[in-house]
Amino acid sequence: MIVFATLYPMVQGKKEVIALIPVMSDLRGDILGSSASRLNTALHLGLVAPSIYTLTKLELKPTLAISMAMSVSISIISFMYTTRMLGEPLNLEEMVFIGFLGSMIATLVLMPYIALITSETFKRGLDPGNLLPTLVTTVGDLVTLPFLVVAFILVASTPSNIIPLLFLTVTSISLAFYTASYSYGGSRIRRILRERLLILLLIAITGPLVGAFLAWLEEGLAEMRLIHLTTSFIGVNGALASIAGVRLSATLHMYGIEGLTGRLAIIARDVAIASIPGAFLISLVGYTTQTLIGESTVGLTAMIAVVAAATIVHMAIGLISALVVSMGSYKLGLDPNNVAIPVITTIMDITGIPILYVTGLLVLG
């Protein structure tokens, strides 16, 4: 939140960047969360050694292929949604290049980080499934905006006549790398890309709505002093719902649907309990952040009331989504590791900003 509140003035009103902030944060959680979930299952099943190099090598190629293709397609669809909702023209080429560049930097930075966290937690006897979703989505949210700002600065300093060429270059590279990875990456990568295709299409269609909502509601959220809470709110709640998805996926792999009977209530209880300090910390840090940067803010009690009420609604949606998506994908013969996390985080992101906005209106008047 401190990063968002500090950097937001640099891109305030720049809809090409504003519309990409939540959807690119969501993309980090979707892609890298699924990667972390696969690594978690592979370690529990003894299929791979807990080595940083081995884990990074195992996931780097499919993760890069998906990141390239998704950053370009999501940027294009975000452009379409945002221009439709705002009724004003945006620069498509700039938006795509900003999204692609920011996404590539974030992926290359976070993939070794995920391998490090997975390896070290597993070697210490901890369950990576309890830690990875939160650590991945939180750090993903932390670096997404700075990298988008870096990409925005680079694009702004690039001669305008070169931007169309860069647009064609990144779209061509993305398509070529994805095709090559599917054709020559081996059976494991083909399965990941094949099973993820429908999910990626779902995310590409629905995910950009998050950015369009933020661009559309930007002024209202800023007026209520809630704008800097948005990415952390959907990020933390998405991480908590993802923990449910990861643990449900591991349970299904090891024990089948019958094994959910004894685990479901425990998972729901753990996630519900974890959301209490989550909501309080979001409120406290949000209030403190606004105070530190010298802007007026709503009272701490009012901010806690807004976030707590919004969290209750949001987490109920998240737990139901985690259960339905994990069981549904398993029954269809799909790997929940490849399906559940992207769908869960997309649902949480799409619903999070409107829930926070409406709750703010009801509580703050």
Task: Describe, in plain words, how this protein is organized in 3D.
This protein has helices spanning 2-11, 15-18, 20-44, 52-86, 92-123, 128-156, 163-184, 187-206, 208-223, 230-255, 260-292, 300-331, 336-364. It has 365 residues and is mainly α. The protein has one domain.
Strand content: under 5%
What is the oligomeric state here? single chain
Sequence stretches where pLDDT stays below 50 over 5 or more residues = none
Distance between the termini: 23 Å
> What's the number of structural domains?
1
What's the count of strands? 0
SSE pattern, N- to C-terminal? HHHHHHHHHHHHH
Q: Overall pLDDT, averaged?
A: 83
Count of alpha/pi helices: 13
- Main pleated sheet: none
> Class by helix and strand content?
mainly alpha
What level of helicity do the residues show? over 70%
Question: Per the principal axes of the C-alpha atoms, what is the gross shape?
Answer: globular
Rg value: 20 Å
